[in-house]
Amino acid sequence: MSLLTMSRWELPLRAVTGAFILNSGLNKRDMPREQAEGLHGFAQTAQVPGLDQLEPTTFSKLLSATEIGLGAALLAPVVPRQVAGLGLSGFSAGLLRLYWKAPGMRQEGDVRPTEQGTGMAKDLWMLGIGLSLLLASERGKADRKRKAAAKPSRSKR
């Protein structure tokens, strides 16, 4: 089995998404306190339990490390698509929770974004990519099982 687990079809999905997330994490590494406070305050609108217990600078450093790790995992061909897809799906689900909970992101009583919320709503593409990686991983397992079952067994001579 090869160490390179990334298929050609998933290369553009993982490369673009991974580079985007990695860049975002690198940009948050040395975030000034005031900016960290704003980011932390905005993130608290998602009502994630325990988030209010974190200091804003700690939160921004954890978010930075998470984005760097996820971006690198998406870019690394040795990371299985199932792992990459699970990480990306979880991360994007958190962003979509923020989109859903934060005031002013959606039109009143509707799922459609406001002009202010469009930037967050477009993160839905990351969830689609993450789920695609997970579904392809399951299909790959089924294909391998089918091929193994179709191989003629070696009979005793």
How would you characterize this protein structure?
It is built from six helices and no strands. It has 157 residues and is mostly helical. The chain has one domain (11-142). Helix 4 (81-101) packs antiparallel against helix 6. The chain starts with 10 loop residues before the first helix and ends in a 7-residue tail after the last helix. The model has no long low-confidence stretch (mean pLDDT 89).
Features:
single chain, 157 residues, mainly alpha, 65% helix, DoxX family membrane protein
What's the SSE blueprint?
Layout: H1 11-28, H2 33-44, H3 56-75, H4 81-101, H5 118-121, H6 124-150
Helix pairs in contact: 1-3, 2-3, 4-6
- State the shape: elongated
The fraction of residues in strands falls at: under 5%
The sequence of SSEs as H and E is HHHHHH
Distance between the termini: 29 Å
What level of helicity do the residues show? 55-70%
Which stretches of 5+ consecutive residues score pLDDT under 50?
none
- Oligomeric state of shown chains: single chain
| Total domain units | 1
Main β sheet profile: none
Global mean pLDDT: 89
Structural class: mainly alpha
**How many β-strands, per DSSP?**
0
The Rg value, from CA coordinates, equals 20 Å
- Count of helical regions: 6
Tell me briefly what this model is.
This protein is mainly α and 157 residues long.
